[in-house]
Amino acid sequence: MRIGGEGSKVRLTAGRLMTGHDGRRATCLILLILVQTSISAASENLVTDHIESELTRPDHVVFSGPGMFSETDIDSTSGLIRGPFGSFDPLERQNWYQDEFSDRYGYGGLIIVQSQTSDLTGMIESVESRGAIFQEFYPDNAAIFSLDVNQLSRFNPIIGQSNDENIRWVSPLPASFRIEPQLVTKSFDSVSVELHLIRGLSSVDIGQLEFIIKDSSGGMGANTWCDDRLCRVEEISPITLARLLADDRVLYIS
Asked: Which residue, of 160, 175, 190, is where some domain finishes?
């Protein structure tokens, strides 16, 4: 009886735990568990739906709207030459004499050729087929070439606006394109410069250029170091600089 009575007290105590404030607390706990379970299930469904949609989504995105699929010619060119004093279209404006080729030192001179398109392959092949030697690219879509004196006649028919399908424009390369603008606009007694030489020069050519520098300097100053296509000259006079600029073996002075 004592045991049974104590058991009854235990059951009664348990029953009391499930009533009143404690009962409401238990109910809230159960509701919280149910809500969390529902949220977890919903989250799993959302994740599953997202994964399935990602798996079925195409590898590319298609945009719609006016002008979205307008055609673009990747070979098109601006037609501009980025000259040392600004950009210009050579077919509309050119401020130098067309026929300023020279024949000094066996070189016919340097020419600049602009391509019809941004692909310069056809233009370079066309110019080289006439015997010119490629030197450097020039913006936009142009290149510089050197000529021997006996090749001038091959280019005379296409000087200016060309009828070659690969060539838009051809001209002798102006001296202003071959020197750093600051060396032209600043006054100085002497200056150190770098001479960028054309391709294909021999050791004899290099020796002649070194002689010109020393001869123009009167044997004083103008120390020169040449390596391949680059010569560094210290303390060069404006007169010597002008003489080198007239030599078409010098591609650029900086």
From this structure: 175
